[in-house]
Design brief:
- With 233 residues, this protein is α/β, with parallel strands linked by helices.
- 48% of the residues lie in helices and 18% in strands.
- The protein contains 13 helices and 8 strands.
- Strands 4-3-8-7-5-6 form a 6-stranded parallel sheet, with helices on both faces.
- The radius of gyration is 17 Å and the shape is globular.
Length: 233
């Protein structure tokens, strides 16, 4: 995949197939890889937080997840978005066939609980090996004992990316760690994805605003805040 620098952030361009192949190569490698799913909100936050810029620099893969960012970088090369809602089930299916363990770290108080995440995974992937925990003072020890190869972190941006950057080295079994935000809620059915037409038109943000009005600040930052940042800052 082609790596570019956009507003100080590393961004990888390419097709979904290329992204998936890169991820599966990471999973079968001997190293550790942080994968960042970049969206407009991340760009806005990174404009005021150098640590987020440094995380993108060190990350093995920075995927575009967000129509605004996809439009902003389209002049640099070919790009297919790979949203977390598609990436998560794809990697779960792959790890199931390869008998790789998956670990999932959830934000306490989120829409999905460890119990209903486990139930959803078992329904969709009966042979999956996965464990799910809340992020607390015991989670690091639980991850070390379970020893997953793939780790999904569901703490929202930028907390999930900061958490991975801080803790990944303490989990030697983990080859790939990805912050996947609300993708787990789509998997469990706690949240509904935008209709296919709205996704095709790139107005998923409007669906989120209508269905989750309490996210107004985050939606505003990812839309109007993003375009203000790249045009005027």
């Amino acid at each position: 995949m082609q790596a570019i620098i956009y507003r100080g952030l590393k961004v990888h361009l390419g097709t979904r197939a290329e992204a998936f192949q890169t991820l599966t190569n990471f999973l079968t490698s001997t190293g550790q890889h942080q994968v960042v799913t970049l969206n407009p909100e991340y760009v806005v936050l990174a404009s005021k937080n150098q640590t987020l810029v440094e995380i993108s620099e060190r990350a093995s893969l920075c995927l575009v997840d967000g129509i605004g960012l996809a439009l902003a970088v389209r002049g640099f090369g070919a790009l297919e978005r790979y949203p977390g809602a598609d990436l998560v089930p794809d990697l779960c299916a792959y790890c199931t066939t390869q008998q790789m363990k998956i670990g999932i770290v959830l934000r306490p108080g989120g829409l999905s609980t460890p119990e209903n995440v486990q139930k959803a995974l078992q329904q969709k992937f009966p042979d999956i090996s996965a464990d799910v925990w809340y992020e607390d003072e015991l989670v690091e020890g639980r991850i070390q004992v379970y020893a997953p190869t793939l780790l999904f972190v569901v703490l929202g941006q930028p907390q999930q990316d900061l958490w991975i950057a801080k803790n990944l080295a303490t989990f030697p079994s983990v080859h790939v760690a990805i912050g996947v935000g609300g993708a787990i809620d789509f998997l469990t059915g706690a949240r509904r994805r935008a209709p296919r037409l709205m996704r095709a038109l790139g107005v998923e943000w409007l669906w989120r605003l209508v269905t989750q009005p309490r996210r107004f600040v985050r939606v505003f930052r990812a839309t109007f805040g993003f375009w203000y940042t790249i045009l005027f800052q």
